[in-house]
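2 proteins. here.
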Amino acid sequence: MNANGASHTIYIISGGVGAVGEQLVHTLLPQFPGKQVNVITVPNVRFTSQIDAAVKEAKSSAATLVHTLVDPELRQYLVNLAAEQQVVAIDVMGGLLGRLAEVLGQPPLGQPGLYRQLNKAYFDRVGAIEYTMAHDDGRNPDGWLQADMLLIGVSRVGKTPTSLYLSVLGWKVANLPLVPGLALPAELRMIDPQRVIGLTIEAGQLLALRQQRQRRLGAPGSSDYVEPGHVFDELDEAVKIFQSLGITSIDVTDKPIESTADELIRLISRRFKEKDRPVSL
């Protein structure tokens, strides 16, 4: 496309996961509304062959290279090769590393990923939140094997808010709604039942929560969702499912999310000898 119309490609070359380069590029792109820019990250660069391939791709598409390499030899190799191949390469790290080495009187270690290693707890927590959001409400069951726990229960029993609260503490939590007439996913049988926990609640409280939600949404007042007999049947069926799966269930009636989360953490920690994930909020 022409200069007025559109697209350009930026390759981010990193010795780590590429988060610094991605953050920089995505911070700048909103300054150019209406323009299409493809951002491709090449992470974990350890060998010159990886740089060769990236520069070749960039040259073929007239792309821009943004690199955050801290290994001095790899960084210099990329700089030289890009210049030789007439590829525009922007060094995000080199100038600052050189300046810090000069004023601090110490050469940089040149080890990629140190920031992430030093801030592992933070990145683990972010990863747990991202996992939990991606596996809310029965989504992406193929990823359940990576869950610290899987919560199941009927609608409005508190699965999502409990899951999100736990994720902020660093736990990867998936949840599955039990919907009348809908078969359980096959993936449920593949996960360790010790990590699957059913949530149940007193019928009157569940009915009140559902009625409150229905009023908030402006939905019709008469439906199985808020019909007392149907609510009792759903809860009875949930208990049967818990028993058939051989899983533990906990009653969340009148419990704040924090109390439910503490109970779940103690249960999973005891079963798998996992330490609670302490966190400062």
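next one coming up
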Amino acid sequence: MSRVMLVCPEPLAQRQPAGIGIRFIEMAKVLHDDGHDISLLSPNEGPIAPETLRDVSERSDVAVVQGHVANDFFVHARAIPTVVDLYDPFIVENLHYYADRGAEVFTHDHATLINSLLKGDFFLCASEAQRLFYLGMLIAAGRLNPAIFENDPHLDTLLRIAPFGVAEPRPMPDTRPHAVLFGGIYDWYDPILAIDAIAIARESIHDLTLTFAYHPNAEATPQSQTERAQKYAKSKSFVEFVPWVAYDMRGAWFDRFSAALLTFPQSIETDLSMRTRIYDYLWGGLPIITSSAPGTDEIIERYNAGAVIRGNDPRDYARAIIDAIHQGHAAGTRDFVEDHQWSRTLAPLVEFCRAPRIEKTKDAFAARLNVPENPPSILQKIKRRIGGRV
């Protein structure tokens, strides 16, 4: 079997990973169970040291990278077969930061993504919509080319779908409190709509509460919507903000809730994202009331695991929340858990790591793209330093 180097962009030492960190932890478990020797790196006290990337790559047969940490990996690591995990479409998510941070974020994201597309040997994504999106980018970068197409018309040797997964099934409580979980707030979510929906639902379920969680890596993730939600909920006693729960303790934490809620406006990010929390909440047995997103709509509807709301009327969300709480445990969550075990969803990664290879066509047609590094203006630097408010 192979010696696998996993390079996670998210800190893991505090055992409070968000979606990407969870994915890398589970990659390590699945690959270890398949007999591979695993080295899992993450930027816990700062960036991963160049010498660490070099030394670990020297004794590895294959690497898996994701996001911006790939930049350092490709500079300092030995050239070995490399899987680029495209599960998180960060370049699309971060379009939301233009007003506060200017073009710098996009320029850096664009350069990072193009560099990874040019240098990776095999790619993973999370859904069919993402697959088409990234195939378009790969053909623009010259990585989807006639040489690889001739031998593999479906392009499975280039890009495969490897969705998020869930842990083993677990026992569920017979009863749950009248509490709704939202979880962490990213800047592309709409927490105000969620608060208004719970306020309306409380007219029928008087002790209903709503819980948000602080992001575990707040310094790396803008928190403008969190701040907005805190101000809006200041006089609303049914809303609470709690620390992020450790990964190994989240099952017991989910048992404190009777449903999960997720609200967000429609955008290209909505079209491409696969909400990590959707998977985790279904593993926790929670019915989910969510704004419409193509990738997760199909899951909620196929497994009869909640309600998809198309629109932004809080009364529609409130009705769905009341129905979900009265109905209790979402009937389809057990089937979902069986179908989405990590060993199944990560099968394409396991296959590649069993026989890692450098893609021979990647240099023949690769685009030579000059992505400018525009330095931030003085005003942009000031705005970043004071939290985007000028």
